[in-house]
UniProtKB/TrEMBL annotation:
Pfam family, one: HHH
Official protein name in the record: Helix-hairpin-helix DNA-binding motif class 1 domain-containing protein
SUPFAM superfamilies in the record: RuvA domain 2-like
Tree of life domain: Bacteria
Provenance organism: Cytobacillus gottheilii
Keywords: DNA damage, DNA repair
Length: 67
């Protein structure tokens, strides 16, 4: 991080910092939910990938659910 950016961050009012952090957290939560939906869509269609059968698809799903 450059000196100019550090100075800008230092001069930001506390109310703006709080609002920024709240927005950042909200955005991160929304993105996390969207990522989970996308992952579930990919996992549902595993059998359509060449070389992955029913058994392998179930092994992958089980592994990802545990982690």
């Amino acid at each position: 991080m450059g000196k100019a950016l550090k100075q800008i961050k230092k001069d930001i009012a506390p109310a703006i910092k709080t609002a920024f952090q709240k927005g950042l957290k909200t955005g991160a939560d929304i993105q996390r939910a969207e990522d989970a939906k996308h992952l579930m869509t990919l996992l549902e269609g595993l059998e359509s990938v060449p070389g992955i059968g029913t058994k392998t698809a179930e092994k992958i799903r089980t592994y990802l659910k545990i982690k």
